[in-house]
């Protein structure tokens, strides 16, 4: 949600920012509705004040036996009541139109976000690790995770399709354990080494929670809805960020750093035909989410820190990756600035997104009415919210299977995961 006062003060700035995200000018319609709304609100307030004055004067006129004046004043009161009713009705129409328009518009990019229309104009910030140092680099034709999972008797897409349809998988045996190990390792790393507080939140939420983080109303088709007016979360960002909705947090407690390992559910409505093979794009998947709640002054530094915390998982697992700064046209709806982490996949000979770390500024906080306050001061202000994947568990599993495969189809288990795997060093192909 946007600050209407800021748009009044700098309409050209907002139009330029929305243009960078592929939208036409919006400020004219916003300011016209805003002027109409303030106009009818002023008329209502003025009429109410005059009605109160006239009502008091009626009593005084009657006390003075001035019936003519009393009748004129009563006629005026009736006219004022009609005016109040008419303008209140107009306010009830204009107000929601303005709020809906503001709610439909994306966040504006930060000043240091590069211009661009799509992912081809994202800017690489750094790389870590060399793909040629991993076992898969010694193979002429490294297998993809689907073939590797089948050889391990660890992935069954057909059984999943029989019960659930496309974009689901059944994991089995060592692959299932490796997926579980990854989630636990990520959660332990973020809590024990990176200072996040573990949360076990609901995965069913109501409309207002998804509105608060920006998924509703614009992206309803990307979500799964129950028959009881709940939604399945597309990411634990929703649950974790909404912990501060309609709250005033003491600034001394900030930043709050929260993490959760949850199931996530996405309809992938806009991804028809994309990544139909394998586990890259699933309807149901596990993810370790990172969320920070900060003061406005803290959020830029916290964004860099959060990105580093997500990178630390890939570093610990020895997976090559690059960090990309997204251009304005490739950022998500609620983000002011986003870094994507992209892990190397040998079967595709390219880097693929495995984490997205975004600073949303006060965009979500305005939608949630989430504020902070310094002790001893009267005023409050909106918090800043940040979110990132630390990491998507399924995609990390894919990266490990593909990067750590050898010519015999064995999968080497990264050293940091071996304690979670009962000391195993490899996954072996099925007999």
Could you describe the 3D structure shown?
With 431 residues, the protein is α+β, with helices and mostly antiparallel strands. The chain is 41% helix and 19% strand. It is built from twelve helices and 18 strands. It has helices at residues 4-9, 11-20, 27-63, 67-104, 145-151, 157-164, 173-193, 207-213, 237-241, 299-317, 363-368, 393-403, and strands at residues 123-128, 155-156, 170-171, 197-198, 204-205, 224-225, 231-232, 248-250, 256-265, 284-294, 321-325, 337-345, 350-359, 371-373, 381-382, 384-392, 411-412, 426-427. An eight-stranded mixed β-sheet has the order 1-11-12-13-16-10-9-4. Strand 14 and strand 15 form a beta hairpin. The protein is elongated.
